[in-house]
Amino acid sequence: MLTRLSAQFRSMPESKLLGRLPDGRSRAAAGHELAGLVALAAQGVEDRARPVPPSWRSLPFDGPFVVGDQIGVTGHDLLAACAGVAACADIRADGASGGSTDGSPATVWAPPSMRCGRAGIGTILGQVLEAAEDLAGAI
C-alpha cells in the first residue's frame, strides 16, 4: 500500500499535489502527514526496548515534490523495524501482538497521536494501514 502511494505521489504534477482534498488539506500535506505517522510508528518500533517514551522526531516538510519519497523511505524504515521485532517476538498470524503491554518485544511505543503509551505492534500497523487506505481513497 505504501509503495503504491509513494509511486502515485511521485508521478503527480504540481497542480494535483497542491490540489485540495475534501477536508481542505492539499494532497501534499495529506501525504506528508501519512509519512510522518509512518516515521513515528517506525521510531516507536525501533525504540520499543526503552523504559520511557522516546523523544519523538518530526518529519520535516521539504515541499510537495518530496512527499512521495518520504512515504517510500518511511515505509521502508517501518518494514525494517518490524523485521527486527518479528525476529524476536511471538506475532500471531493476524498481525496482533502476542505479548502484553508490559514492554515485551511485540509491544512498541505508540505514536503520540494514539495517546496510549504502548500498544501491540499489530495495533500500530493497523493504524498505519487505515491511514494509508484513507489517503488512497481520497486522492
How does the major sheet shape up?
2 strands, antiparallel
Mean pLDDT, as a whole number? 89
| Structural domain tally | 1
Distance between the termini: 13 Å
Secondary-structure element order, N to C? HHHHEEH
The strand line-up of the biggest sheet is 1-2
Q: Note poorly predicted spans.
A: 91-103
The percentage of residues in β strands lies in under 5%
Helical content, roughly?
40-55%
- The best one-word shape is elongated
Number of helices: 5
Q: Radius of gyration over alpha carbons?
A: 15 Å
Structural class based on helices, strands and sheet pairing: mainly alpha
List how many beta strands DSSP finds. Answer: 2
Write the layout of secondary structure elements.
Blueprint: H1 2-11, H2 14-17, H3 27-46, H4 67-86, E1 107-109, E2 118-120, H5 121-138
Antiparallel strand pairs: 1-2
Helix pairs in contact: 1-4, 3-4, 3-5
Please provide a written account of the structure:
- With 139 residues, the chain is mainly alpha-helical.
- The chain has one domain.
- Helix content is 52%, strand content 4%.
- The chain is built from five helices and two strands; from the N terminus they run ααααββα.
- A hairpin with an 8-residue loop joins strand 1 and strand 2 (118-120).
- The protein is elongated.
- The two termini are 13 Å apart.
- Mean pLDDT is 89; it is low at 91-103.
